Amino acid sequence: RSEEMAKSTQLIDNEVFRAYATYTAIVLLKMMLMSLLTAYFRVTRKAFVNPEDTASFGKGESAKKYLRTDADVERVRRTHLNDLENIVPFVGIGLLYALSGPELGTALLHFRIFAGARILHTLAYLIPLPQPGRGLSWVAGYAVTLSMAYRVLQAVLLL
Amino acid sequence: RSEEMAKSTQLIDNEVFRAYATYTAIVLLKMMLMSLLTAYFRVTRKAFVNPEDTASFGKGESAKKYLRTDADVERVRRTHLNDLENIVPFVGIGLLYALSGPELGTALLHFRIFAGARILHTLAYLIPLPQPGRGLSWVAGYAVTLSMAYRVLQAVLLL
Amino acid sequence: RSEEMAKSTQLIDNEVFRAYATYTAIVLLKMMLMSLLTAYFRVTRKAFVNPEDTASFGKGESAKKYLRTDADVERVRRTHLNDLENIVPFVGIGLLYALSGPELGTALLHFRIFAGARILHTLAYLIPLPQPGRGLSWVAGYAVTLSMAYRVLQAVLLL
């Protein structure tokens, strides 16, 4: 049993891996927040997509009018999809990067810029801020992931 | 060579990690099933989105009428996207959770509730069941992931 | 410190894991390329979705006409979403597979077919090639992931 515990806590004792775990949890929680925001806007804007979701508003035409798109709901949904498109590569490449033995300071710099960039991206998308606010925050996160991928391929390349 | 094998099977010998691997494989396979279902509904409902996909139905207008949306196809696609939005955080946070050394029983409880909740969510979405069936199954999976994220941040926090 | 480094480079010294890391980085970078392609087509086709993205084209109606969908943009976006739906299971199941101690040759075969299939899928989708080009490349990647999932469940099953 104690041997098992030792095995399981091995990676988690590594500081770079702990930093990776911290920032991955943060950006995935931030992404999950988009689901709640979508639900919030659907309910407050009364804009649904599934007929069964409007059943509580009555039957027939009185409920049907709530099956519609809403600009705010669609905006949150785009933010959510953009998170998926960018956070999935970060989580996958970041794991490999964390295991490739980078310096803690360098790794923290990558993780902090990525997390900060994605939080700014969400704010820029939802407020919304004038461009190039959203564009630049997207580029920052993208560049961090490219930098980690370069380091990973340098460390492990086996085709 | 044998040393390599030992290294590679190290994590896989840990019971919590084996449980994580089992349930992650199950929920990812469940998500992959959505692709097959989308294809099935596109073919049976004759509702396609790419012109090259309708070429076998003939040329010109006779094929063009199959470039349309269908309520069942769109419903499966929403289920698939909801899986992506929820299973990606489970896979990422669940891995960190499994490595943070939880009790096997506690970990199994988390993984089983999540997998069960997502299977129920898919059934509730596709049948469809009246609300709050789908809503509650979504909340159960979401809550499990939040609980794992809390444990991960408690165990590893390194900002 | 050196002990930490040793821990962190342990997995990365395993050849199967290095192969997994290489191909995972490649397919995630390929997926990230879809973001750049979407941006390229949005700018060259002048087809945007957010009002703040068209502000540089002037005010009022002169900018509003660029808030529209474009067939090429939508095609790239479908390719991107298809990548998410298929590369996420590969990255998750592939990690578990790499840790389950497969032969290096077998693992490389899986990873190479998957990466090749997804690159062909993108080309088939964007050129576009006549069917069943895209369909077959999709099936190849899907089958590889199923094969890895089977091996994972065989090796770790703990319900």
Automatic annotation (TrEMBL), chains A, B, C:
Positions of transmembrane segments: 20-41, 84-101
Complex formation: Homotrimer; The trimer binds only one molecule of glutathione.
Compartments, as annotated in UniProt: Endoplasmic reticulum membrane; Mitochondrion outer membrane
Organism of origin: Smithornis capensis
Catalytic activity reported: RX + glutathione = an S-substituted glutathione + a halide anion + H(+)
Protein name, per record: Microsomal glutathione S-transferase 1
Keyword terms, alphabetized: Acetylation, Endoplasmic reticulum, Membrane, Mitochondrion, Mitochondrion outer membrane, Transferase, Transmembrane, Transmembrane helix
Cited Gene3D superfamilies: Membrane associated eicosanoid/glutathione metabolism-like domain
Membrane topology note: Multi-pass membrane protein
Entry's family note: Belongs to the MAPEG family.
Molecular-function GO term, any one: glutathione transferase activity
Alphabetical list of SUPFAM superfamilies matching this protein: MAPEG domain-like
